[in-house]
Amino acid sequence: MGRLSRYLARYWWRYALGAAFLLGTASLAMLVPYLLKVGVNTIESGGPWRRTAYCAAGIVVTALLQGIVRTFSRFVIFNAGRDVEYDLRNDLFAHLLKLPQSYYLEQQTGDLMSRLVNDVGAIRMLLGPGILNVLNTPVYYAYAISIMVSMDPLLTAVALSPYPVLLWVVKRYSRQLMERSVRVQAGLADMSSRVQEAVSGIPIVKAYVRAAAEEEKFARINAAFTEEALRLARVRARMFPSMQSAAGLGTLAVLAYGGAHVISGRLSVGDLVAFIAYLNMLAWPTMALGWMISIVQRGRAAMQRLEQVFAVRPSITDPPHPKAIGAVRGAVEFRDVEFAYPTRRDGQPALRGVSLRISAGKKLAIVGRTGAGKSTLVQLLPRLFDATGGAILIDGHDVRELSLADLRRAIAVVPQDPFLFSATIRENIAFGVDVVDPARLHQVAEAAGIAAEIGALPAGYDTVVGERGVLLSGGQRQRLTLARALYRDAPILVLDDALSSVDARTEERILAQLRALSGSRTWIVVAHRLSAVQDADWIVVLDDGRVVEEGDHASLLARDGIYAELFRRQRLEEEIAEL
Amino acid sequence: MAEAEALHPEEQLGKAYDARLMARLWVYVRPYRRWFWLAVASLPATSVAMLVRPYLLKVGIDRYVARGDVRGLRILALAYLGAMVAEFAFFYLQYALTMSVALRSLADLRRDLFTHVQRLPLSFFDRNPVGRVVTRLTTDVDVISEMFAAGALTILMDAVMLLGIMGIMFAIDVRLALVTLSLVPLMILAINFFRVKARDNYRRIRERVARINAYLQEAISGMRVIQLFAREEHAFRTFDRFNDAHRRAYHLSNVYEAALFSLAETVSSASMALVLAYGGSRILGGALALGTLVAFFEYIQRFFVPIRDFSTKYAVMQSAMAAAERVFQLLDTPAEPRGGKARSGVGRAGSVEFDRVWFAYRGDEYVLRDVSFRVEPGETVALVGPTGAGKSTVIKLLARFYEVPRGTIRVEGRALADWDTEALRRRIGVVFQDVFLFAGTVAENIALGRRDLGPAEVAAAARRVRADRFIERLPGGYEELVRERGYNFSTGQRQLIAFARALAYDPEILVLDEATASVDPETEHLVQEALRELFRNRTAIVIAHRLSTVESADRILVLHRGRIRESGTHQELLEARGLYYRLYQLQFSAPPERRAAAAAR
Question: Strand B406-411 to strand B414-415: parallel, antiparallel, or no bridges (unpaired)?
């Protein structure tokens, strides 16, 4: 819990202030029964009324003060809890930003989301309401019991006699409650996966007329879940009365035993009233104990899950002493590069000794069938993954010797998956740029062949895209991601199968425009369509993680190998499409 | 709009009580109405038992303590104990009954939902993600049950209690009651003030929670882009902005809630002070007994808690109504048509005819255009064409997953619309390209819940499609469990299981979409044998990806851009040197990668 105490230390004075307010609240709370007692005793002993009126006025003043102090105590502590939640979330997010892609390959978004939402929420419960009660309970206990003892020790003992039972009841039921809740949650998860499966398998269910069998399976899980939920409800139904009974027995004891004292004259009615009031003050904190235990337990489990995230080391980081490179010219070399995805259990490498080089300002094309390692290769360049063997050099510098910011600034990538943020087109193209140059924005949109379509939208560049905005076609998204890369104006441009959803003619037109715009840029193009790479200075054919052929278009065709075969097949595909 | 048929998103909140929705929920509570009414009846009983206790306190002080009657006091203590026991017994009865009614009726609702979901047309699932449907059946129904646990009935109980306390106070002493309640209007005004504030803020909170979660989700999915563009700092600033806005909204709500919480306590103490001062003067004047004062103190303490908690319960009701609205919307989504009455064909068993069929999934983007063909009983027809030609649509239409807007499909001489859908599907066995395996055993996946298929029949089906050998080698044999949708089986093994499933179904007409993924040569051999067995003695329509399949087909239909372009046997079509000839070179001749791999070795 080292991390938690650091957060707590950061806000210690607010918690201290909150604790002081709590103490104030409790002190004022103790005053009310006392004033009540004096008032009632005055009445009992026949006046004077003025004294009772003073007591009443005192109660009003106390209540008003208490209201204010209590308000402060609650929101000061709850807000501190929210602030820790805020810090924790920010720290988690900052950590996530540093984690390598290999982590995200293995991690499900849903699981991470659950940690950042549910687990952080559980910590907040611990550090808000949890801490409030942890501070409150002993204060009320100490205060109320010492006052009660000072009034009548024997009566106090009698009044508190059911409390061990109450504590036992609380402990027992909170354990039961927790166990049952876990089972109900598990039942709900079972039901979710059952429904999920049934819905995913609906074509089969319909085709084989199996609805009845599915309903039967569901009915079993539904019944099991309902049974668990009923058990939980029964625990709840018993818990509340049991706790109330144990607390009520205290009042009853005061009434029976204390009543006799009043008759014998050892106690006044006012004392009795105050005594019952003090006793009532203990009932709630005691009953809340079980709730607190569960908050603490859930908080601890949540912190463990969060620590697992924090424990993941950002393996791709800046070197200790990054080389300062001025303007990158854009010469790229892969030297005996080996790579295996950490997620591959069998350890099969995705790249086996790939070597290739491209001088600055030239166009390199990488082709090959699906799974040959093309995308993997280009992802190593900006260090989304680190090669497991060999080296990758830019202008003769090993990419691992450069600062990540320098390296990635030198490379503009259009990834395979045209991911856009739910933001305006402007924000997506000038991604993360504070001051946007409108002329440049338009220029890159033009070059990416998307300007006309943006112009046709009512809001133009201010159109929000993504899930909550305008839905774009795959081709439109690809062209926007291309524009985004162009806006970076990096010396190295990487297109990772970036125009696959655009038709062949548009692709050719866009590439021609790019060529005119690109100037001295180095290009690395991973392409499915060979028509897009024919003009490349150098073409590399990858297969099964190896370079199997390389050369320019003409020489590769002449070789009559894989490239030539791929070329023929694509011609055939085009012919078919024309028919 | 195209989205009109999609289910409502999660974020709306509206009324806390909707008679129409309540009436629909009542349909589900009705079977358990006796218990329900018993629970409702025990509500006031709980309240009465709760209210008796302060009154007993008054009686004890005024009648027994004041007169020094110790024995009377003991009897009264017993009565007090009795009231306590009664209160808790009634509470238990009330809560246990309510929850039992709620959980059972909601289980029924869930069952109806599941049954209904199974009957929804496939087009529904094209528009609605699986997760949303799952939420309706799980989380949403759960939220409705919260209404029973912490909403409607407890509000009723509180109302009974408030009225009861007022009634008793007025019965004991009208003037003192008026004084006691004098602060209530103030309290209600103040609570209302904070509630309006809190409600507006609550809306803000929901927006901000949604925003921060959406951004988080997006940033995690788009982490690659953020890192590639070295925009970590920008992303962090954005997140920080949302995180901070989220925190500030909650800071405000903490202030309101703390004030609301403290207010009830303050007003309650102030009311006691009023009772003390006013009641005290009357006692001193001899017009009132001391016990009355004590009883009033107790009643006051019980009076303000329900008022304070009302807003929480109101929010529970709001969420429950919104969830019920969503659940019933799903239940109201029209199911797929049950079809006609006919349970058998009029033509020859196993014949299929497409007669000028047009089909579009969306608007007028036609996937099939004027498609006509006939398949005779026992014939094997291969469908061939480039990606997006409309091949799989032919299969889906035949199984009546979608309605045909133009043209007619006839099975055994009867138009699909006239067939009883289930009877139709019993005649057609479908094998999809992606084999879907259910959680359960291999045997269960072959039998698919049919009771008439015993272990012997399942094994026989597996044997006929050559699946027996690999299944028997599994540690659990036919009882081996399928994990994670069957990914503990290889593609080839999954296909063989699907074939066994189809064979056990023994349809007149087999419709099959061959998997494209290549399998090892040994399995390939098994698959080819299995296919031959499957096609024997029945009509078969196959989307072909295998050379052996097209070669052995009785007829090949070549689809391109939604039209049938060529038809004939493999040899005929090859000789025609048309579309099929090119497709053959592209799809059925050995792919280059295999040659390359061979060359590399």
Answer: antiparallel
pLDDT at A467: 63
Q: Is 70 exceeded by the pLDDT of residue A571? A: yes
Count of other CB atoms within 10 angstroms of residue A451: 18
Start-end of H helices in A532-561:
553-559
- B130 in contact with chain A, both atoms CB, cutoff 8 A: yes
Is B100–A233 a contact, with Cβ atoms under 8 angstroms apart? yes
Dihedral over alpha carbons B432, B435, B441, B442 (to 10 degrees): 80
Segment holding B347, helix H or strand E:
none
Contact B386, A569 (CB under 8 A): no
Q: How far apart are alpha carbons A54 and A48 in whole angstroms?
A: 10
Search chain A and give the residue with CA nearest B56: A255
For B76, residues 6+ apart whose C-beta sits below 8 A from its C-beta are: A255, B56, B59, B60, B64
Residue A469: which pLDDT band, with cuts at 50, 70 and 90? Answer: low
CA B547, B550, B551, B553 dihedral sign is positive
Computed over every residue of chain B, the mean pLDDT equals 85
Cβ–Cβ under 8 Å, residues B407 and B371:
yes
Identify the pLDDT of residue B12: 54
Q: How many CA atoms lie within 13 A of A109 on its CB side?
A: 11
Among candidates A201, A209, A230 on the partner chain, residue whose Cβ is nearest the Cβ of B422: A209
Residue identified by tokens 């003769």 is: A396
- What are the distances in angstroms from CA B95 to CA A260, B39, B175, B431, B513? 37, 7, 36, 51, 55
Task: Give the single-character DSSP code of B478.
Answer: G
DSSP assignments along A115-127, one per residue: IIIIIHHHHHHII
Q: What share of chain A is helix, strand, coil (3-state, %, to 5)?
A: 65, 10, 25
What DSSP string describes A319-352? -SSPBP--S----EEEEEEEE--TT-TT---SEE
Question: Across the interface, which of A215, A431, A565 has its CB nearest the CB of B592?
Answer: A565
Per-residue exposure over B180-217, b if at least 16 CB sit within 10 Å of its own CB, e if not: bbebbeebeebbeebbebbbebbebbeebbebbeebbb
Q: Which residue of B has its CA nearest to A430?
A: B229
Q: Does the beta-carbon distance from B227 to A101 stay under 8 Å?
A: yes
Distance, CA of B270 to CA of A66 (rounded, Å): 11
pLDDT band at B460 (very low <50, low <70, confident <90, very high): very high
3-state helix, strand, coil in chain B (%, to 5): 65, 10, 20
Among B70, B262, B599, the residue with its CB nearest the CB of A67 is: B262
User: Does A93 contact chain B (CB < 8 Å)?
Assistant: yes
Q: Which residue has the tokens 């590769």?
A: A556
- For chain A, how long is the longest CA-to-CA vector? 121
Instruction: List strands edge to edge, sheet with B539-543.
Output: B428-431, B509-513, B539-543, B380-384, B555-560, B563-568
pLDDT band for position A514 (cuts 50, 70, 90):
confident
CB B313 within 8 A of CB B155: yes
CB contacts, 8 Å: B283 with chain A: 43
Number of alpha helices (DSSP H) and beta strands (DSSP E) in chain B: 23, 12
Helices (H), A201-258: 202-207, 211-253
Here the ipTM equals 0.87
List, in sequence order, every residue forming a beta bridge with A493; answer none if it has no partner: A412, A523
Number of Cα atoms under 13 Å in the Cβ half of residue B271: 28
Cα separation, B155 vs A158, in Å, equals 36
| pLDDT tens-digit series, residues B473-496 | 888 899 998 876 777 788 888 889
B449 reaches A (C-beta below 8 A): yes
Alpha-helix residue ranges (DSSP H) falling in A254-394: 259-264, 269-311, 374-380
Q: A425 pairs with which residues across the strands?
A: none
**Mutating which of B132, B180, B254 best tests the A interface, going by the most A Cβ atoms within 10 A?**
B254
